[in-house]
Amino acid sequence: MRSALITGITGQDGAYLAELLLKKNYNVFGTYRRISTPSFWRLQHLGVQNRVKLIPADLTDTGSIINAILQSDPDEVYHLAAQSFVEASFDQPSSTGDITGVSVTRMLDALRLLKKDVRFYQASSSEMYGDGTDESQNEETPFHPASPYAAAKVYGYWLTRIYRESFKMFACNGILFNHESPLRGLEFVTRKVSNGVAMIKMGLAKSIRLGNLKARRDWGYAPEYVESMWMILQNEEPEDFVIATGKQHSVEELVDLAFSSVGLNWRDYVVVDKSLLRPLDVPALRGDPSKAGEVLGWRPRISFPDLVKLMVEADLKRWRDCLDGKAIPWDIPSSLNIENKNEYYIGSVAHGRKRPE
């Protein structure tokens, strides 16, 4: 039985990847950040929390990383953990550089010394391309990072290549474009929209405040993208791959589809808030997944409209279950008391309505 170590197993990608590897009969270990109330809701939602072996770890501490490697003795390592929120990286640039960038060096060097024959996957990001245009980005497109997060990811990308070429390690970059699901965090625009639409439809919110509606992204479905991670490490040679749909959609399209899926007009509920704009925004990103299709046989399957509808329906179900008093694994605070609150602040959605009778 093969063993895999997933850093950041409690995140969207980590949870879906754990589920996939368990189905493939892996022994799955995962690191998580030791905090007062660690969040395992995604693993619980997928029903896999009790089937993975969880290891507390700190990516800023080499000893902690070494301990995780020794405990898991992995054949494959998927390094997904990071400070992954672009906006927050402007407020915390130094810690973002350490956690998202320098941690890659700690991981690779520990593996070089302890288990050099391991297969290593680095979660690179489309944000590395930065100053995007309507042209698609592939494995040869130059990087132009536009945030501390993107700069840290560029550092991790090049360290992965350096260790591959210098020490002959099986180290690969997956340059994944935006990928979403019902397990996405509330701080990301897709989930902010799907949750906001669900709350408005349920009579729990009046509006959603958003920033740049014109930004365009290449959005895919997260479970399909984690499958590509596994396929990259099964490839005969260590290589880097762009994973994307090759199609581009604006935030306004996202909003329109989400509201239309519940029979509402988005213009009646969306407020554009300039305070939510990034200091330096990336206008457009669109990936070219041709190499992944030719070499790995990977191709996206779910369409963007279906993805948006799927996310809205998932949040509608959560709110219905919550209002019915059901205990569900979720990222809405468990202390939320719908009956007694006059005002709720869920993610970035603020409103002032009581639960409808």
Q: Can you give me a brief rundown of this structure?
A:
Helix content is 39%, strand content 16%.
What does this structure look like?
The protein is α/β, with parallel strands linked by helices and 357 residues long. The chain has 2 domains: 3-180 and 219-243, Rossmann fold; 189-217 and 248-283 and 303-351, UDP-galactose 4-epimerase, domain 1. The protein has 11 helices and 15 strands. The protein has helices at residues 12-23, 41-45, 62-72, 86-91, 93-114, 148-167, 189-201, 222-234, 251-260, 290-296, 304-323, and strands spanning 3-7, 27-32, 53-56, 76-79, 119-125, 170-176, 179-180, 208-210, 216-217, 220-221, 241-243, 249-250, 270-272, 344-346, 349-351. The model is unreliable at 337-357 (pLDDT under 50).
Defining traits:
alpha/beta; Rossmann fold; UDP-galactose 4-epimerase, domain 1; 7-stranded parallel beta sheet; two-stranded parallel sheet; 11 helices; 15 strands; globular
Structural class: alpha/beta
How much beta, percentage-wise?
A: 15-25%
Low-pLDDT segments, ≥5 res = 337-357
CATH C-level class of the largest domain is: Alpha Beta
SSE succession = EHEHEHEHHEHEEHEEEHEEHEHHEE
Shape: globular
In the CATH hierarchy, the third-tier topology of the largest domain is known as Rossmann fold
Structure annotation, total helices: 11
CATH superfamily of the largest domain: NAD(P)-binding Rossmann-like Domain
Terminal CA distance? 54 Å
